[in-house]
Amino acid sequence: MSPSKLDSTDSFGHEEASVSCSKPENGCVDSLSIFHSEKAVEELLQQTPVAGMDEHLIEFSEALRTVAKALRRAAEGKASAQAEAAEWKRRYELERTRNIQMERKVSGNNNCEMLQHWWIRSSLDNAMDMLRIMLPCLFFWEVGKEQNKRIAEARMAEQFSAEKNGDIDCERVKNSDNQSMLQNESNEYSETGCMKHGIWSHEVLRDRESDSNSNADRNKIMRKASFKLSWWCNGENGDQHKHDIVSFERGNITTAERSSKQISLKWESDPQTVLILTKPNSVSVRILCVQMVRWLRERKKLNVYVEPRVKVELVAESSNFSYVQTWKDDSEISHLHMKVDLVITLGGDGTVLWAASMFKGPVPPIVPFSLGSLGFMTPFHSEHFKDCLDSVLRGPISITLRHRLLCRVVRDAAKNEYETEPFLVLNEVTIDRGISSYLTNLECYCDNSFVTCVQGDGLILSTTSGSTAYSLAAGGSMVHPQVPGILFTPICPHSLSFRPLILPEHVTVRIMVPFNSRSPAWASFDGKDRKLLAAGDALLCSMAPWPVPTACQVDSTNDFLRSIHDGLHWNLRKTQSFDGPRDRDL
């Protein structure tokens, strides 16, 4: 740049400064209003500084840069505060809903069993409490009796010495009597306090010995610190299930081996109603459905429910199927779990997912027949359906409790906390970038703890039953379906250190689209019901209280291992030949 241009620019800057200073009321206000927007600030900062510029303009530009940072921090703080408020409100609603459900559950048909269980446990607890109360009280009673004996001996010694010296102090004897009375009252108060409150921090165990032992032997006490284990989940006390997991008698913790036991279902009364769900557009499934409906009705005398589409097909084939029942609208589907004793699916894993999605609450036991492709959740074969159903209806049978995820969408601009009804997911919920070409930017929280910021194609929150589906394709681990947990699997993360996680069942995972994200995200639930997540929106996922019970051919572990061997050919390779070079015998 030529010197003439520099001079002209410098003079122009001085002229502007003089004009703005000569008109403090108008000029200065107009010049400041230009920089109120962040865009104007960035444009000013991007300009190349001119040689000879005054130092106060440089300081002013630094101040504007600081203001821009403060504005961004304030926006991020506001977004974080809104998300925190929505989370606390959600917890309050969940606590309220859980309390209502617990009240209804207590007033249900299991009152007799619950009262009997409570009576047995309360009797044992009362007996243990009485022992804990009586042992310390007996100890303090013995100590108090010993102290009274020593005080009486001391008083008699004082009286004997006073009589011997001929100087008996009546006042001293009276004070001694008062002191002994106070001591006796304090001992009695400690004993009554023991019996009344019964709160002690230690279990006191004392060997019963005769009074002829020495004082050192009498004071020999064995102490073991007592404690209590409590199960907490999001600030909620879950103490009622602790004895199913561990036992902690006298301060020793031992596991109850609950997770290693198979689950068995035994009918207390014979099933009366069966629901059959079929894969559409399949001739083999339609033929099998006709045979199964006729056999269940004629041989087992069961009431049969089918979908409206299937009933039309059955009636069109023969008018003898008029006894088959169905529903008219979606409102009747919500009451199916009160009518149906057993669900039979004819198809693949997708048919099992469809059957689970029909029940928004408790799910009846499902008997899945394999008529699909892979069949991780369909262990039964259609060729022997009569023998299979006969053994299932007779019972007992092994079942697998497949956990589901409860998902809710929270809108940033919504007046209510939740946009729609919750989604129940048996496989996984996927948050991806959709049709956008930008990286997905997602902030992830586990309860109140920040987990990470996902930058990649997306994120998968999967159940253990869905560990062999999309999560497996994205690099996640295969997990036994009865292991309670949430799989946290990234999709093509732009980081070499981003590995999948398995979170415990009691946590609540919150996925939020930050305000500085370049594009929105899309959420899909078991591959359906895609929802747009704009900036500020969040997705909350937790373990649903209603699992999906599926019948096992052998047991849950055998069926799981057989499915990954047959469906995925897991670790299948040729066996190494035995002939060849070997290690020499040592």
TrEMBL record:
It holds the Pfam family NAD_kinase. InterPro entries: ATP-NAD_kinase_N, ATP-NAD_kinase_PpnK-typ_C, NAD/diacylglycerol_kinase_sf, NADK. Gene3D superfamilies: Probable inorganic polyphosphate/atp-NAD kinase, domain 1, Probable inorganic polyphosphate/atp-NAD kinase, domain 2. Residues 71-98 form a coiled coil. Residues 1-25 are annotated as: Disordered. Keywords: Coiled coil, Kinase, NAD, NADP, Transferase. The keyword Cell inner membrane does not apply. Belongs to the NAD kinase family. PANTHER family: NAD KINASE (PTHR20275:SF0). This is NAD(H) kinase 1-like. It comes from Gossypium arboreum. The lineage of its organism: Eukaryota, Viridiplantae, Streptophyta, Embryophyta, Tracheophyta.
